[in-house]
Write a structure and sequence with these properties.
Helix content is 70%, strand content 0%. By secondary structure, the chain is mainly α.
Length: 195
């Protein structure tokens, strides 16, 4: 008798994140942009409003259009399951939350006229984190150096020379967070393993 093949919900945090992003993008279309304005974008708004703090987290779910969403979800669904398996669901939620809040606060402080939405910062965190998956103590993987040089270098150059609607700062901050957390988590697990 043949074994039945079934689809598994293999990376719950990553899958729920992707589902929420898709729903947020659909809501934005159905409300003619109002959903992003109210919930799924972060921008310089009153610190007296509770929605300002909510948007510090929820902006990572909003996307400008389907192309923006598909671009981010492709990387997220490619890298996320490997990271969730290695570090666990709780750690991945923390990475997403830290990246969301830090990029939102940086945007609030340094770009008061710019609205920020999308999972690009989280994607860049995942990209840099993934280069540490085969980390050995006392070494920095060459893959990390190359990924950092290509991705963050490109963002710095684009930030200086290209004027578009992409927040290069969110990408750079996400990459830095991913690199630091990837390194820190691997050092921590190596340290635990040696005791």
């Amino acid at each position: 008798m043949k074994k039945r093949i079934r689809i598994s919900f293999n990376a719950p945090v990553v899958l729920w994140f992707a589902i929420i992003c898709a729903v947020a993008t659909l809501l934005n279309y159905l409300t003619n942009g109002a959903a992003n304005q109210v919930i799924f974008s972060t921008y310089h708004s009153s610190l007296g409003s509770p929605l300002t703090y909510l948007r510090f987290v929820t902006h990572v779910f909003g996307h400008g259009d389907w192309t923006h969403l598909v671009g981010n979800m492709t990387y997220l669904l490619l890298l996320g399951p490997m990271l969730e398996e290695k570090y666990g669901s709780k750690t991945l939620v923390e990475v997403i939350a830290i990246t969301a809040v830090v990029t939102a606060v940086a945007n609030y402080l340094f770009f008061p006229t710019v609205a920020l939405c999308g999972a690009s910062g989280v994607v860049f965190a995942f990209i840099l984190m993934s280069s540490f998956t085969s980390f050995k103590e006392g070494e920095i993987p060459l893959t990390f150096v190359l990924v950092a040089a290509f991705f963050i270098g490109r963002e710095i150059i684009d930030g200086i020379f290209v004027t578009d609607q992409i927040s290069n700062l969110a990408h750079i901050i996400g990459g830095i967070i991913g690199g630091l957390l990837g390194y820190g988590l691997n050092v921590k697990s190596r340290y635990k393993g040696s005791h």
